[in-house]
Amino acid sequence: MKIIFYIIQKEFKQIFRNKGMLPIIFVLPLLQLVILSNAATFEVKNIKFAYIDNDRSSSSRALIEKFEASTYFNVLTNFPSEAIASSAMLKGEVDVVLEIPSHFERNLQKEKRSNLGITINAIDGAAAGVENVYVTQIIQSYNKHIKTDLMQISDTQIRPVNIDTIPLFWYNETLNYKTYMVPGILVLLVTMITLFLAGMNIVREKEIGTLEQINVTPIKKSQFIIGKLFPFWIIGMGLLTIGLLLARLIFDVPMVGSLLLMYAYTSIYILVILGMGLFISNFTDTQQQAMFIAWFFMVIFILMSGLFTPIESMPEWAQILTEFNPIKYFVEVMRMVMLKGSGLMDILPQLIKTIVYALIMNGLAVWSYKKTS
Amino acid sequence: MNNTNVIQAEGLTKMFGDFTAVNAITFEVKKGEIFGFLGANGAGKTTAIKMLIGISNPTSGQAHVAGFDVSTQAEDIKKNIGYMSQKFALYDDLTVKENITFFGGIYGLTKIKIKEKTKELIEDLGLEEVANQLVGSLPLGWKQKISFSVALLHEPKIVFLDEPTGGVDPITRRQFWEMIYRAAHQGTTIFVTTHYMDEAEYCDRVSIMVNGKIEALDTPKELKKQFQVDSMNDVFLKLARG
């Protein structure tokens, strides 16, 4: 026990003495949290919208006004022809073009229907999807509006079948993307910093030769590993604390669930990451190698965590792969506890998987750490 | 096993793939002896030391250090030996005192003992002025002396020194050997490798390794007689050139 204390003491001294490293550990991640949480949003705003109005009627103008009234669309111009609109889209000047056919108003009144042409620039598929939804919503609301208009002038016998969906967004009523993103990004920061620090740290001792010096002491493997990793466990928990404070103070993210549960889960989760870091460092000889391997796994873990793309929409084999992604569980738990107020029983599956993961990872790490080559 | 032999190696061999780094070396080191372990660069000295201090498993053969088997009781050996590697291995970003505390601590010394040792070591080496300075800021010669003292902190029976005086000025080298003599005087066995043949003359007995084998082993005096030369330098040249 005492021996572990001496290692921990030494690690903390080295960490806090390294003036180049301190800001990397504490300032950069928080800066990332602030920047990414504001920037990484799925909302598509300021959509460059143009139209070709071949009808020039009061109905077509009413429709365009609907778009103008929307905060998502930035109505730019009226193109005289489709060819000009196409070339503008090619140049990237517009994202969405609405083409209103001639006789739009007449068709609406006579046949109770008309077609509209919508062209969406789908270079960014995700944005195009969102734009499509927005356009549809606006046209639907326009529909409703003219239905009532038309009803007044048409036969009262015709009753429009009025099926309406009223979306109710639970747990994040205002669909605030920051509320959704901040917990996720916080997960990334805690993971990245602890993985890189732990992975790098032991390889560094290999590089400067002090690891050999330690290997000739009678220190036990477990003592060395606990002493080495404990400081990074503390740093991980510290980062979580600062991150949660920022989430509350700057982003006003609710903390519905139990803070204690959050910390309990994180304390186990960080063990997974530290074990992983140690495992990597056992198989690498230089910090550079360790960095690349850690980075390789980080990228896969992040992109397959369900943070940026929903896991449900991944192909089946990828969904199976995500079962091995610790970040996925952390993101889930973080969002569940913070936004939904989930309790221990709700996060039990994730918790158990994480505990098993931690046991396996640290088992592998201790096994692969050899004092004798 | 003879009680006075603190190191006993028999046919100790280490192979890396097809390459035989250490080829069946057999020798013993007596208690309290200063044993010079010589050889050209790449002769296999460091590999041999790594097997003796229990951080590298022998491919074949066996060795006992401080009465323990290197293959099966490496951790017991580690309690009884000190090691100073070729690569300077204190922490540059810790102070002299902090390095002493750390290594004392992981050898399991008590707090009081660490304090005592720190004081003693700093006085012996005249480091009062720099005790709270980062080791990284000290000149190499000082680092080597501190390194040696740290290797002796837990009062080991045997101390392994791998080229301890490499790159150090003659005055510091002399002081270093005075330290070695003092430790030997107190009963510590010294196992030292060096490239300086004048240092070889200081040893009680010397072995010379060539291409993984021990080609000569005796007192410097006997070796000079055997090869009919005047200095250890000539002994070395005769052997190393084959």
Keywords for this entry:
heterodimer, A: 373 residues, mainly alpha, abc type-2 transporter like fold, four-stranded mixed sheet, elongated, B: 242 residues, alpha/beta, Rossmann fold, six-stranded mixed sheet, four-stranded antiparallel sheet, globular, ABC2_TM (chain A), transport (chain A)
- Name the poorly predicted regions of chain B: none
Number of helical elements of chain A: 14
The CATH topology name of chain B reads Rossmann fold
Rounded mean pLDDT score of chain B = 90
- What is the count of β-strands of chain B? 10
The CATH superfamily name of chain B is P-loop containing nucleotide triphosphate hydrolases
Question: What would you call the shape of chain A?
Answer: elongated
The run of helices and strands of chain B is EEEHEEHEHHHEHEHEEHH
Estimated share of beta-strand residues of chain A: 5-15%
Largest sheet of chain B: 6 strands, mixed
Overall tally of structural domains of chain A: 2
Spatial separation of the terminal alpha carbons of chain B: 34 Å
Low-pLDDT windows of residues of chain A: 153-163
Q: What level of helicity do the residues of chain A show?
A: 55-70%
Strand content of chain B: 25-35%
Mean pLDDT of chain A: 84
The chain pair forming the largest interface, with residue counts per chain, is: A-B, 25 and 30 residues
The rounded Rg of chain A comes to 28 Å
Radius of gyration of chain B: 18 Å
Number of domains of chain B: 1
Descriptive report:
Chain A: InterPro entries: ABC-2_transporter_component (IPR051449), ABC2_TM (IPR013525), ABC2_TM_bact-type (IPR047817). Chain A: This is ABC-2 type transport system permease protein. Chain A: Pfam families: ABC2_membrane_3. Chain A: Belongs to the ABC-2 integral membrane protein family. Chain A: One of its GO terms (molecular function) is ABC-type transporter activity. The complex is a heterodimer of chains A (about 375) and B (about 240). Chain A has about 375 residues and is mainly alpha-helical. Chain A has two domains: about 1-40 and about 175-370, no CATH class; about 45-155, abc type-2 transporter like fold. Chain A is about 65% helix and about 5% strand. Chain A has helices at about 1-15, 20-40, 60-70, 80-90, 105-110, 125-155, 175-210, 210-215, 220-250, 260-280, 285-305, 315-320, 325-340, 345-370, and strands at about 45-55, 75-80, 95-100, 115-120. In chain A, strands 2-1-3-4 form a four-stranded mixed beta sheet, sandwiched between helices. In chain A, helix 2 packs across helix 9 and helix 7 packs antiparallel against helix 13. Chain A starts with a helix and ends in a 5-residue tail after the last helix. The model of chain A is unreliable at about 155-165 (pLDDT under 50). In chain B, a hairpin with a 2-residue loop joins strand 9 and strand 10. Chain B has a six-stranded mixed beta sheet with strand order 6-7-8-3-9-10, with helices on both faces. A four-stranded antiparallel beta sheet of chain B has the order 2-1-4-5, covered by helices on one side. Chain B is built from nine helices and ten strands. Chain B has helices at about 45-50, 75-80, 95-105, 110-125, 140-150, 170-185, 195-200, 220-225, 230-240; strands spanning about 5-15, 20-30, 35-40, 60-65, 70, 80-85, 160, 190-195, 205-210, 215-220. In chain B, helix 3 packs across helix 4. Chain B has a single domain (about 30-55, about 70-240), classed as 3-Layer(aba) Sandwich (Rossmann fold). Chain B is α/β, with parallel strands linked by helices. The interface of A and B includes residues 5, 10, 209 and 217 of A.
